[in-house]
Amino acid sequence: xxxxxxxxxxxxxxxxxxxxxxxxxxxxxxxAYGHYASLLAIAGALAVERVTVTAKPTxxxxxxxxxxxxxxxxxxxxxxxxxxxxxxxxGKGWEFYAHSPVFWVKLAxxxxxxxxxxxxxxxxxxxxxxxxxxxDGDVPEFGDxxxxxxxxxxxxxxxxxxxxxxxxxxxxxxxxxxQDFPWQAGAALVAxxxxxxxxxxxxEAFDTKGEWEK
Length: 214
Hints:
Blueprint: H1 2-11, H2 15-52, H3 59-90, H4 94-98, H5 101-133, H6 144-172, H7 183-207
Helix pairs in contact: 2-3, 2-6, 3-5, 5-6, 5-7
C-alpha cells in the first residue's frame, strides 16, 4: 500500500517544477519567435530596398528606403539578441555551439551581411539628411554608378541571410560538430570579416559621392 502511494506521489507533477518548466518553455518560445520573425523582417526590408533603390529616387522612394533601412537595423539587433538568448539559455547549450564550426559560419554570414550593409545605410542616411536640408524641394539623386553598387551590395546581403537558415538547420542536427574545435578559431572567423569589411564599406561609403555631393 505504501509503495503504491509513493509511486502515485512520484507520478504527480510538482507545482513548482511544472511552473518552472512552463515559464522556461514560454520564454524559449518567445525567443524562437523573435528570432524567426526578425529574420523574415530583415529579408522583407532588404527586398524593399532592392526594388526601391534607383539613380533618381522620388521623395516617396527615399522615405521608403529610410523606413526599410530602419526596420532592417532594428530587426538585426533583435536577431542578434534572440540568437544570443537561444544559444546561451534555451538551445543545446553554449558548450555545443562553441564547438560547432557551422555555428560560427552562421555568425560569420551575419557579420558579413551586417558589415556590408554599412554602405547602403550610410548613403541612405546621407541622402535623407540632404533632403531635409534641401530648400528647393529637389530630392537627392544617387546616380547610376552608386545605385548599381548599392543594388549589388543588397543582393549580397540577401544571399548571406538566405544561407543562414541552412546553416541553422545543419547546426541543429549536429552536422560538423567537433568537440576538439577551438571556439577561438570560430570567433576569429567572425571578428576578422566583421572588422575588416566594416572598415572597407564605411570608407567606400564616404569616398563614393552621390549626385547631390558632387
